[in-house]
Each structure stands twice: as structure tokens, then as C-alpha cells.
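hi! just following up on the protien thing from before. the input was this:
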Amino acid sequence: MDYEIAFDDTEQTYRIATEYEFSAIADWVSEELKEREDIQKILQSIHLIDADTETQVTQQGVYIVSIGAEGVSVNRQVDMSDVGEEISAMFDTQSDFYQASDDGIKSECGLEDMVGLLEDWHNLLY
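and the predicted 3d structure came back as:
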């Protein structure tokens, strides 16, 4: 996974930028893993999963994170409640044609890639 950690002048904080396919992972780390303890918990989970083969699923904000032996999966949920009615109104002649979905964006990567990203993120912040 290619990524870049850079300072965002707009938000006045560091963020991770990736290709679109990994954007949910980059957003999750940038927005939810700002404390040392949070980063360390995820790293510990990855190391424990590596030895044990159970999948751990947690939710942090709008992100559902699954850590398993096959890798890390991050699903960013999307709140469509505000725009769902407006979108449905565009298709008012066929009310069943469109239904707003909150499935969001899902990204996956391997455990080694995730460990490398988190270690670089930790080193930058601390």
C-alpha cells in the first residue's frame, strides 16, 4: 500500500493520503488514531491476531474495523439520512428505483502493511 503522511494546512493536522482503494484506512487512522494508546491497542491486536486466528471487529466513530489473520478491513459508514429524501425525490415517478445506502467505503490491506503504516504514523506523532 502506497501512502504519504503530510501536514494538512486546512485542518492544521497531519493526515495520511492514499490511493482511493485505501482511503477508508487512511481516513480512519488520520481521524481516529491520534492518541498513543489507540495506536498501541491496534498494533497489539494485530500481533495477537497473527498468532491466534480469530477476527476482531470494533467500531470507532463511523468506522467498522475488522482485524483477522488475512488482514485489516476498514468500512467507513456513510450517513445518508440528510440526503436520502432529496435523492429519492429526484426519482419521484419511480419510488422504488432508488434507495439511499449507508454501506460506505471499504478498504482492505495486509497485516504487515498496516503495521508499517501505524509505526510510521506513531513515529511522526510522537
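DSSP finds four helices and six strands in the chain.
The CA atoms of residues 6 and 110 lie 22 Å apart.
cheers
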